[in-house]
Amino acid sequence: MSGPAHRARNRHLVAAVAVLLLASGCATSRVGSLGPAPTAGTPTPSASTSAGPGIPGPSASTAPATAGTAAPAPPSAGTPTTSRPTSLTLELWYVRAGLLVPTRRTRPATVATSRLALDELAAGPTRTEADAGLVTLLPDGAQVSRIAAGVATVRLPEAPDAATGRLREAQVVYTLTQFGTVRRVDFGTAAPTGRADYADLLPPVVVTEPVIGARVTSPITVTGNADVFEATVSVRVVDAAGRQLATGFTTATCGTGCRGSYRLTIGYRLARAQSGTIEAYEVSAADGSRTKLVAVPVTLAATG
C-alpha cells in the first residue's frame, strides 16, 4: 500500500498507540497502594491521661484505616484500655505457741512489696488474731537491702535467745518467699535459707484458707497442708455455742512422715450470722479423739 492511503493508515496506528500509552501512564499502580486517604473528620477531644490512681487512661489508636473502611472510633474517655492492680494481698506468717501460722492482709498496691510485707509483719497481729494467740517476733525496722539471683538480703537485730532468733528468721523466710523473685533469704550469719530449713516450725496441720477473722459463707472451702496419719485431714464447722454444724474429711497429697496439701469443701446450715470456728485436725487412731487440732475463728454467714 502506498500513497495517501498508506499515510492515512500510519496516522491511525500512531494515534491508537498514543492513546494506549496515555492510558497506561495514568493508571494507578496496584503495588503498595493504601487506597484513598480517609476523610478527615471532627477532631476527638483527648482522653484523660489517668482514669484514677495508678490506672492509665486510654490512648488513641494509631493503626491506619483499611481502604474503603471507616476508621474505628476511639475508646470513650474515662474507659481504661489497661489497668494495674490497686490492691495487694499479702500472706504473713506469725507465731502461735512456738509454731508458724499464716494470715493475710490486703493493702494498697506498691512496687516495694518486700518492704510492705516486713512492715506488716513487724506491725503484728490484729486484735482478732491476737485473741487467737498470734504474736510477731520481728522487730521494727527490718528491711530487704537487695534481691539478687533469688536471694533476699535482710539484716535483723540480735535476738535474745536462739529459739526466738530462729522463729524470727522463719517468719521472714516464709513471708518473703511468697514472691516469685525470692527463694531464699540471707541473714548474714550463715548460708541463705529457704522454707525447708524451718519446716519443723510448722504445726502438723496448717490452715491457709480461711484465715482468722474471715467472714465465710456456705459451702466453705478449707485449704492448707498437713503431716498427719495416713494423710487424713478432718474438718468441722462449729457455731458460737460450740455446736457442730458440719463435718467432713479429705486426704492430703502426702502424710505420715511427709507434708502434703489438702482441700475440702464443706457446707452448713445456719439461721442467723454469728461467730464460729473452723477446726482442722487428725483423728486419733488410738481412741478416735481430735488431735493436732487447729482452730480458726471466723464469722459464719446465715444460709437463709
Automatic annotation (TrEMBL):
Is Amino-acid biosynthesis a UniProt keyword of this protein?
no
Q: Which UniProt keywords apply?
A: Signal
State the superkingdom: Bacteria
Q: Where is the signal peptide?
A: 1-29
Region annotated Disordered sits at 35-85
Which Pfam family name is an example for this entry?
Answer: Germane
**Boundaries of each GerMN domain copy?**
114-195
Residue spans of biased composition, Low complexity class: 35-71
Q: Which InterPro entries match?
A: GerMN, Gmad2_Ig-like_dom
Entry keyword Signal: yes
Q: What is this protein called?
A: Spore gernimation protein
